[in-house]
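Record type: ASSEMBLY
Status: queued
Input:
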Amino acid sequence: MNETQNAVPATKRVRVKRLPDRARYDRETIEAILDEAFICHVGFNTEHGPVVIPTGYGRDGNNLIIHGSAASQMLRDLSKGVDVCVTVTILDGLVLARSAFHHSMNYRSVVIFGKAELITEKEEKNRALEILSEHIIRDRWKDVRPPSDKELKATTVLRLPIDEASAKVRVGPPKDDEEDHSINVWAGVVPFETTLGAPIADERNIGALPGYLRQE
Amino acid sequence: MNETQNAVPATKRVRVKRLPDRARYDRETIEAILDEAFICHVGFNTEHGPVVIPTGYGRDGNNLIIHGSAASQMLRDLSKGVDVCVTVTILDGLVLARSAFHHSMNYRSVVIFGKAELITEKEEKNRALEILSEHIIRDRWKDVRPPSDKELKATTVLRLPIDEASAKVRVGPPKDDEEDHSINVWAGVVPFETTLGAPIADERNIGALPGYLRQE
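Status: finished
Output:
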């Protein structure tokens, strides 16, 4: 079960039921996944049923930071403190087995349950937006024009405590039935690789390419 | 609004409210996004609140195909015909503006609302699994051992009609305020590129690398 002293509290809804050997409850694993991905999928219930919306995020210690337009229905719903489930998924590879049945994917995912809280204080809001920006592209914040008071007012920023959370991780080769190993078909893993491509300057760009965008 | 004769029916919950100029309701756009991505995020409500789970999928004409273990709580819940929201997101790039406020991402996403239906008939179930497999890795199905009756029984396969659906698409450069264009900072788009890496053969692999895994 990989539970450590530094585990998040285990509530009923956060326990991984299917394939529990893939479950991780330690903060290190959960935070590493959150720190690597760019977007989360936010699920909540509305009068019209469940809704799942993709959005960027950041992590401030034990809180996930989400932001959006103050006019966004999602942000308005979440500001009210409704139950929310936020899921972050990284696809690592296709797992190709000898049987159709044992095909799988290697992935790392985190599911967080809780209620989001509004960040209203100006300095705290600014700091949360900086964390979000730095999460997505490090060292950018100091280069750009900071939010004006009007822009800050037009932006809703929420924190979601990472208290009720679990990770699920599949790694490694296919797990075929013993008798299928004699089937003459290629079996193994095909990794996914996500990289940043060559930057495309805006047609009115006047700035030099910053260090954080230079290809190694 | 990009509505065409071939648009999906527009219900209240499916209308894109925020930034409606990014909305697309035509089947061509919706299907192209669904056909390109590998995983979806499935949201539904439970007695413990909303849950969002990542999973693979396929598309059979006007139906999304989802599958999983018959023992999975998600599949059991969805089989009952509860309301579900399935979201597919492709990240295309980071949009770097002159102001923090106008930073964004280029993306293509689809949101589908509806109720899933169980596929029970054996031939239909097999065909749905083949479609799912071919969606993820084309030409693989014919090479592998097909599902046994026991494996088919252990697998739940669902179809979700793509009737209530919308896409949201952001493309192109940053949209800065006119007065910010004189700020001396690089502005533009950094594309994301997801590729398949070099295949890693299983240690007991005896098959030759198939054509669909050879790097161009």
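Annotation: Chain B has one domain: 12-213.
Annotation: Chain B touches chain A through 94 residues (CB under 8 Å).
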